Amino acid sequence: MTSFSEQPQGGFKKGSLNRSSTSPRTLFNNVMNGVIFVCGLLALLPLLLVLSYLLIKGFGSLRPSLFTELPPAAGREFGTGGFGNAIIGTLIMVGIGALISVPIGVAAAVYLTEFSKGKTARWIRFATNVLSGVPSIIAGVVAYGLLVATDIVGYSAIAGGVSLSILMLPIIVRTTDEALQLVSQDLRQAAVGVGATNYQTVLQIVLPAALPSIITGVTLSIARAAGETAPLIFTTLFSIFWLRSLTEPTASLAVLVYNFATSFDQNQQSIAWAASLVLVLLVLIASIIARFTTRSKS
């Protein structure tokens, strides 16, 4: 069999498929591959630096009593105290935010995808994009003005949950909207063909098909809300006691880190590092769950 580099009959010589390692195109390709690889490493570098620094500073301060004890006052013996109430407060406020934002966000996305057309849908999507870019401190100021300054609930877990729901809502709307749009039209047409109404099609066909992506969006919104500090400073303040009511000041991990990291007490500083590590791990776990859900869908 004649190879590409051999001289065939008729005197016509075909070119070789083997590209020279010194050709300009090969050199340019190798250089660009190297540049892309370096850029990928630089993109991962901030995450690696944050995780490594938190592990160095926070892992040595971790101990079981941190999860069961209350925050210590300044001047206490080193190695005492914890942030058990802050973990509970964070979970409760994020849960309140999810209870508010998930039903509203999913319902709004269903309306946009299934029942709204034209300018109305475009304006709602535009408003959602604007809301997603609003700084978190603005959400805190709005919740403060509506709930705290008017003394409706005061500084409380409820006010903190409302402020977090403002940040979670646009993420849920956008991800759910995109997930519903990816559901095949054939499924909708098949459901209508067997006599299903629009609401039956949405509830029994469309939403179950898009459920993994919806869960991913909810998980990502929870991960963002769990690490927010500014809204909680305006709406919940802080507490060194166990939570007894949703209408009283509530501790959170983010605000505890803010308060203790700026303290001159070494014991509080060590607790702040440990709380930072726990908070980052919670966010990472939420992100891993979202990633796992996406892979399960695919």
Strand elements, count: 0
CATH topology: MetI-like fold
The CATH architecture can be named as Orthogonal Bundle
Shape: flat
Task: Determine the CATH superfamily.
Answer: MetI-like
Pfam family, one: BPD_transp_1
Organism: Calothrix parasitica NIES-267
Subcellular location: Cell membrane
Protein name: Phosphate transport system permease protein PstA
Describe the protein in words:
- The chain is mainly alpha-helical and 298 residues long.
- It has one domain (84-296): MetI-like fold (Orthogonal Bundle).
- It is 69% helix and 0% strand.
- It is built from 10 helices and no strands.
- The chain has helices at 24-58, 84-115, 119-132, 136-148, 157-182, 185-193, 198-226, 230-235, 253-261, 266-297.
- The radius of gyration is 27 Å and the shape is flat.
- Residues 1-13 have low confidence and may be disordered.
- Keywords: Cell membrane, Membrane, Phosphate transport, Transmembrane, Transmembrane helix, Transport.
- InterPro entries: MetI-like, MetI-like_sf, Phosphate_PstA, Phosphate_transprt_permease.
- It comes from Calothrix parasitica NIES-267.
- Belongs to the binding-protein-dependent transport system permease family. CysTW subfamily.
- Residues 87-290 form the ABC transmembrane type-1 domain.
In short:
Helices cover 69% and strands 0% of the residues.
Features:
disordered N terminus; mainly alpha; 298 residues; flat; single chain
Task: Annotate the secondary structure layout.
Blueprint: H1 24-58, H2 84-115, H3 119-132, H4 136-148, H5 157-182, H6 185-193, H7 198-226, H8 230-235, H9 253-261, H10 266-297
